[in-house]
Amino acid sequence: MEESIKVDVLSGAEYRTCRGCGLCLLPCPVFKSTGDIRKTAHGRKKALQWGADIPELAEAIDECILCAACEPVCPVDNNDITGFTLRQRRALNKRRDSRPDWYPELADNNNVKQGNTTGEVALIIDKDSSSDAALAGLIDKIVSLLGGTRKVGVFCFDSDALEAGLAEPDEALKSLIGFTENARRIVATGGTTISHLRKRLSAKKIASLGETLLAMKEVTEALRPDDLLVIDSRAFNNDHKRLIRLYDRVIKDTGVKTNLDLNRVAIPTGADSLQ
Amino acid sequence: MHLDNVAPDSLRGVPRVQTNPKRWDGTGWEGFKKELKQSKAGLELQVSEAMADRSIFVTDAGGLAYGMPHGILRPGSADDIAAVLKAAQKHKVPVTVRGGGLGTEGEAVAFGGLLIDMQSLNRVIAIDRKTMTVRTEAGIFWHHLAEELRREGLDYLSAPLNFTSTVGGVLGVGGVDINSAKFGCSADQALALKVVTPTGEVVECSATENKELFDRVIFGYGQFGVIAEAVLKIRPFTPLKMHYYYYSSLRSAMEDLRLIVEGELADYSGILTIMDKAITLLVAFDTDEAENTFLEHTEIRLRGHGELGFALRSALYYGLRPWRFKEALFLAERRFTLFPDLQRSEHMDKDGKVVDRTVLFSRAVWRHWGDKKMTIPDISTGEDDFVEAVMRGNEVCKKYFKYYTMYCVGIKKMGDGSDNARYEMSCISERAKRFAYGCEFEPVAEKEAHSRDYLQRFKNEIYDIAVDTGLCCYRFGGMMRGYIRRLYGDEVVDRHRLMKKKADPASVLNKNTVF
């Protein structure tokens, strides 16, 4: 496994750099709905700077929806706040017996859906589609756009356990990473999964589904000014510096409306959060 | 013995500058909490004494003052604040009110007592297109207010540059940015307030209702009441066309800024410097007509250069002074890291206009100047004092730091001058006839590490310029306490002290800030 494993340990360096500027409060959906600074990255980091222990921050750690909206606005470069939250969550879960009701059960993630598992494109869908006909149909369309079943292998990966901090990333991602071994390109739908894969497969070209589709002329030509393009917050915000250029071009070329806020950060819908 | 976490000049016989007041000893705290539980709002009033909660507020943006409150409270309404202040008066419990915590002299740091976190009062209550006003709870960030207004194609008039400040906090101080030369301070946009007085009365006030309270609370550093709600002027939103002019002479740049401000020749104007070597005068316009008029009639009068002209001049200057190559490198580095952040394409429309400029600039401020210790002393001058005061401040910066920046804007005084009660003991210099000027002086922290004492001495030396020249200082009430008599004289200060004593008999509200 890659060197990035070492960052999976919660260290003082992760929170000591916080300047307390409060910029992360501005796009944070939890702060916007509660007005409670304790529930933000700023609040948690400041508390840790002054000696708070992880269990004291349980409510705040549990409530974060991992939208990564805080990351693009943080003035500290390459600040992996989402990763920090996930590490806190894992550490917290090791120290408590009971958890909030919304926590998921651990899932079996060895679920190859279809297609060429040694194909050059690995399409990772962030949920099990086997019992969802509409989703299955959509996946077939995406496979077709990406080059067809000869080129594309589909893997359904349930990232709930990772998001909930119930599984260690290296173990949970083992079979997924094995599946992508032969792929030259990885396209994934889940922002959390993408983030984990990037840390571990730095040599692979990894893109979100949104980014991949927007690079296709037939997709962007279909966008109209009265359309609303809902950008997945996690995948976008986590890779904001790179993706904002692509999306800015699409917005200017097509006039499409999006869920970008004043900071040009994707406002999360919350639809894919565990809470 | 070398300690890792202190600057090299610490602990070597440096005279210690007292930043933190003595912590309140806690007498009355238990009685105060009991009183709150028994109050009408008692069931909803949760005072948190958890260390994890209190430690979030232990310092402010300045990072020099440190204090731990006994407890934190997040109010749900003005009535909650009223209940708190009534109980605080009775039990003599100090109450510190905090918005964004962007003061730098400990104004929003609690040295014991209760800290009220106003961020829980963050709703926009009503937007009125007929009167072009917005009514909002005062704990809202300017950024969030801007978000709500933008959805309606509207905008505030003048907000502070730093968007992580709250409306209430800024109305108590002033709030300036590059459009203050046109619209005045942020505080001057307030038409009405809902204030909780230090004795716990909830009062609506304005220029026509309870005027005396209104005049004391606006620019009042939180001494005469807590702003719970505010009615502010608003306007239609416009993107901006920015223009930049570059100078190697600080004096010339400031004189040109005066020309623009006092001639009311641009909608937005300001100066940003990198030391006194690279000075940028920026101007911007809400309309194409205003821009065209400026370009046709005013641009020719400016002594600044375009970027290429300035770059050539700088290259010649440093070419003849090769021993200053590090300084040249710093300027170049700043140019290539800062400027792209001020001109990000996702904030530009197809006509090259900047959209949501304050959001962009606010983020850039934290990225390029932000640190755990924000050292930003300001002085506020009248028209005729501006240039000399800043030149003196520049010399102070050079004395203390190798790398620093200065940021200057004009501030229009509102009204016809006949009723300036609100400006008394405020950040607006009484020497200003129509326009005040604010200038902040800021070291580039990342380049050098300094002790708290060193940074405090620097700040005090900047404030001393205001004392020496009869000016005043902007923004930071904490500084005020040690300086107000020298700045404003005994008559004004004693009169305000009496007013404060009458309004706040137990002296509980925002102690040690001004009085």
Description:
The complex is a heterodimer of chains A (275) and B (515). Chain A has 275 residues and is of the alpha/beta class. Chain A has 15 helices and seven strands. Chain A is globular and about 55 Å long. In chain B, the strands form three sheets. In chain B, strands 5, 6, 7, 8, 9 and 10 form a six-stranded antiparallel sheet that branches. A six-stranded antiparallel sheet of chain B has the order 11-13-12-15-16-14. Chain B is 35% helix and 18% strand. The two termini of chain B are 40 Å apart. Chain B has 515 residues and is an alpha+beta fold. Chains A and B meet through helix 3 and helix 15 of A and helix 2, helix 4 and helix 12 of B.
Question: What descriptors fit this protein?
Answer:
heterodimer, A: 275 residues, alpha/beta, five-stranded mixed sheet, two-stranded parallel ribbon, globular, B: 515 residues, alpha+beta, six-stranded antiparallel sheet, 16 helices, 16 strands, 18% strand, disordered N terminus
| Strand neighbour order, sheet with most strands of chain A | 1-3-2-4-5
User: What is the β-strand count of chain A?
Assistant: 7
Helix content of chain A: 40-55%
- Ranges of chain A where pLDDT stays below 50 over 5 or more residues in a row are 1-9
Structural class of chain A: alpha/beta
Q: How many helices of chain B in DSSP terms?
A: 16
Supply the helix-strand structural class of chain B: alpha+beta
Q: Overall 3D geometry of chain B? A: globular
